[in-house]
Give the backbone structure.
Amino acid sequence: MKKSVFLGALTVASIAAGASAAATLDDVKARGKLNCGVTTGLVGFAAPDANGKWEGFDVGVCRAVAAAVLGDANAVEFVPTTGKTRFTALASGEVDMLARNTTWTLSRDVDLKFDFVGVNYYDGQGFLVSKEMGVSSAKDLDGATVCIQTGTTTELNLADFFRANNISYEPVPIETNAEGQQQYLAGACDTYTTDASGLAATRATFEDPSAHVVLPEIISKEPLGPLVRHGDNEWGDIVRWTLNALISAEELGITSTNIGELSAAPGDNPEINRMLGTEGNLGEMLGLDADWAKRAIMAGGNYGELFAKNIGESTPIALARGLNAQWKDGGLIYSPPFR
Amino acid sequence: MTTITDPHQGQFRLSMLLYDSRYRSMTIQIVALIGFLMLLGWLLSNTAQNLADLGKEPSFRFMFEPAGYDINQRLLEYDSQDTHLRASLMGLLNTLLVAVLGCIAATIIGVVIGVLRLSPNWIISRLSAVYVEGFRNVPVLLWIVFIMAILIETLPQPRAFRSGDATMSFWESVAVTNRGVYIPEPLFSRSLGDVHVFGASSLRFDVSLDLLALLAVLIAGILTSVLIKRRADATQEATGVRPRTWHWRLGVVVVPFLVVMGILGFYLGYPELKGFNFRGGTHLRNSLIALWLALSLYTGAFIAEIVRAGILAVSKGQTEAAGALGLRPNRTMSLVILPQALRVIIPPLISNYLNLTKNSSLAIAVGYMDITGTLGGITMNQTGRELETVLLLMLVYLAISLTISAVMNWYNESVKLKER
């Protein structure tokens, strides 16, 4: 019995490792579906709507990649992962890419053997507290009970922040955002900490969002972006340039409404022409056809459209562009040129 | 008439390995063994090869790097700068804590319910049956989550104690909140201090001299008490009159203990509401309470059935003989039935203790930081060493289980019927 458990674990490990060696692009094409790892449910970023259809900002990246590679924005199998299971799911080949509020750090990039292909949201860790507690700064949280998602960078930032400020706290580890929300609302913890965007999204689902505030301190840098397994660079390139295409499209003024017109015939702007495949052979270089970027943009719109539709100021989550504005507007969103 | 023919004594031929019944079974076993070893070798080499391809050669060096995360319930001193090894040790201690508490509570619940289920009182036996069937037939994970949800949703927040919506119980000494129960802690104003063992290594721990002193006095008291009982027994056998000794026996245990407590300056530290939470006192987190309750109620249901089977295995003649000797029912149970039933009960009880210990790995469902939560959870996630951490985890659980089995088997040897 003991031995068979051991063997089972080895089998899992060997199958897992075996799957990752093959070329992901061929696997995805053969399967006809993209397996995309997302959160277990964070409104605005990735959550199923009333009809069970996944929607959100991260989901938009998955759909764009599926559209670019397979020609169908709906050919995506969404695999919900927790903070703890996501890396194993990606490393084992259960998912082809992860678009799941995952912070780009050196150890994840180098030691965990993943490749971050870019940043689709510049975030930072914040604290959510109820207004009636009368707390105005995270430094007032001495002795507080803090709910924290286990297996995240926020867990390590939290330890560092309280240590650096020489104040004490009691961590309550939880597995999913839903659990954190339940414990926080029941008052089992004084504050819930995660990326500020996640807090805004969580607060938007509360019965009375105005009774809760996100404290002004942002205690970390959390560049969130999609990632793939290390070693399959062709696949990494496809995901990276799909994200870049969404970002460049906003910069160049390509939207889901005018893209049909712009891609019909070569226009005045050579970069738009190259990107949309009316000029040059960028698609071929990636191992895709000429229309790949056009389909990616048509899947959910350009970066700005995805932002506005899912988490922008007109949505309940109401996040301002801030750092996530285009570089021309004073933000950090910047794509290398298509050439 | 039957004749027994001697086996053919001729020369050994290769075909005999297959056609001779003397060798066939051995041939099959050897072939199966070779096949098994080849499969094992293939799995091992494949795993090693694939890990090497990924650039992740197995290594346990990560255990000596700083963990970087905090653990809420720690039985020894720990901070986020300690190593992953020490974080795993904290987890291991938490696992052992809930396992020991759970085994004790499950045994008590199991014995009581098992006896009650055989009660002639219809309501009591039915209620026990409902308890047993209810807990036995629902997965323990659901019980853990359910009890945790009840604790979180129904008990008052610490804030409610400030506004007066909730009050502390037991003369202002115990606070029951939805973050756990705060009870007074024993403190010593003239403490002897601690002894530090293993210096600054990852396995360091402190031993409280106060605790050692109290334990020593307690054990000495109990031994003296046993001596007094022996003398009383001897007097009773010699003269037929048993001297009244209970006050002596109680005195030698309690008085020196109280004296030492007084010398050490014993007092209770009460929990007090300060800032966001109660400070001071001992904090029993609701994750521990939920896990402990769920595991002991669940395993208790199985133990109740084992106890019932054990009692039913003792022949009815024993009860009747005890009744004929004039023993009252409760003394019949404790002096005649249970000691004999114990021999039937112990072996399946061992496997239930093992189950409880292994089920404690569900702790992460309520955020209890056991070894699966620290080593198999956060450490695995932050270092990405899946194979190494899972292997270590399996080794740890194997070691715990084998230890429990060894201890219980030794106990079983000592209570089982001595056949001469």
About this structure: Chain A is about 40% helix and 15% strand. The longest strand of chain A covers residues 125-130.
